[in-house]
Amino acid sequence: MSTTRRAVLGAALGAALGGFAAATLARRAAAQPWQPERPLRLVVPYAPGGATDLLGRAIAERLGRELGQAVVVENRPGANTIVGTELVARAAPDGHTLLMASGASLVLNPLLYRRLPYDADRDLLALAIMVEAPLVMVVPPRLAASDVAEFVALARRAGDATNYATVGNGNPIQLAAELFRMAAGIDMTGVVYPGSAPALAALVAGDVQVMFDVVLTALPLVREGRLRALAVTTRGRLPALPDVPTVAESGFPGYEAGTWFGVAVPRATPAAAAERLRAALAAVQRDADFAARFDALGLLVQPPRDAAAIAAHLAAERTRWGGVIRARGIALD
């Protein structure tokens, strides 16, 4: 064999071996689950110190353990979650920027605003619904209503003199009250307060007759006897209020209200990264200590759901609240 032919064959063999090695490495890389290359950030579109911030930090700490990288919470409050949500929608889709998503950011805002700087479906991918935040229907103890039926009878006699407390237009507290008003066929007028604390104070004082508040904030007042809980808005009774019936079992089958918090990423995030993050979040949801901590506060940690179940949940939420928002003509721009 000539020197030239040996060189040609050697080059061909080297190229073939090199190609085989490259293909083998590619297959091995593809078989390995995605891992973050640097610390991640979890954008929380709420101010520090609140319940959502507390939840976000608990998720970040446990998620960091699962991924082997720190997860840093970045608070970006403003404009009814729009500021933080837009930031994540426009972030690099590399799996390193996450959103503390909610019913407000992915369901209600698209229904309430004619113009948003993000498209909830096109720009964002929900990976997990971590907790549900149920509401409780509370009244002042001096009100002559010990259950939902008595409240409805009282409201019918009072006509449009019945007022409910809310913390702004288009939020779950207002929408839960409006959904109940429609279901019960009663007249109620919303009175807006600049936050849950002043709204609850007005309710305790008897300035308004009812409020559908987040269990987390109303629970201490119920336990102190300063408010009476008539019903919870969940499908089943709550561990934090086991003796309080649901609105559904109080004469309004199918009634369900509340909000939820989860985690989303930019829609273009690679599938491998999205699935790795989804699996890590599922491990957080299965953490018994995590569940016990937030269940005791009235935030119900949810079992993991796959992509199809999450999409179905979002669709059902949009149908329910879209009907209320259109019927009541609620808009924020």
Summarize the SSE layout with pairings.
Layout: H1 3-31, E1 40-44, H2 51-67, E2 71-75, H3 82-89, E3 97-102, H4 103-112, H5 120-123, E4 124-133, E5 135-139, H6 148-158, E6 163-166, H7 172-184, E7 189-192, H8 196-205, E8 210-214, H9 215-223, E9 228-232, E10 259-266, H10 271-285, H11 288-295, E11 300-301, H12 307-328
Parallel strand pairs: 1-2, 1-3, 6-7, 6-8
Antiparallel strand pairs: 3-10, 4-10, 4-11, 5-8, 5-9
Helix pairs in contact: 2-10, 4-12, 7-12
Main traits of this protein?
333 residues, alpha/beta, D-Maltodextrin-Binding Protein, domain 2, 11 strands
End-to-end distance, in Å? 83 Å
Shape: globular
- Residue runs with pLDDT of under 50 for 5 or more positions: none
CATH superfamily of the largest domain: Bordetella uptake gene, domain 1
Give the biggest sheet: 6 strands, mixed
Level-2 CATH architecture of the largest domain: 3-Layer(aba) Sandwich
| Total helical elements | 12
CATH class of the largest domain: Alpha Beta
- The third-level CATH topology of the largest domain is D-Maltodextrin-Binding Protein, domain 2
Organism: Roseomonas acroporae
InterPro entries: BUG, Bug_dom1, TAT_signal
Family: Belongs to the UPF0065 (bug) family.
Protein name: Tripartite tricarboxylate transporter substrate-binding protein
